[in-house]
Write a structure and sequence with these properties.
Blueprint (H helix, E strand, L loop, with lengths): L10 H8 L3 H9 L6 E3 L6 E3 L2 H10 L17
Antiparallel strand pairs: 1-2
Helix pairs in contact: 1-2
Length: 77
């Protein structure tokens, strides 16, 4: 077994690492905004992530975070 292989984590651990919700992590994975590895061929895939790859993408600012911004309600006229 190789020594330097980093473990894969699930969406919950990836979300904790990036301080996001697991659902948002899965959305970013599905649209290809973050590196992710789908397991399975069916409609319901299991996604796995490598934390160092997520950190690298965030550092390079290659993720479009604009869609992750908190939306506020428009003030009533």
């Amino acid at each position: 077994m190789a020594k330097d292989i980093e473990q894969f984590v699930d969406a919950k651990k990836a979300a904790e690492f990036l301080n996001l919700r697991p659902r948002r992590i899965l959305e970013l994975a599905r649209d290809g905004s973050i590196p992710a590895y789908p397991i399975g061929n069916g409609q319901r895939r299991v996604w796995r992530f490598v934390l160092s790859e997520l950190a690298s993408v965030v550092r390079s600012r290659a993720v479009d975070w604009s869609s992750a911004a908190v939306r506020t309600r428009k003030a009533a006229d």
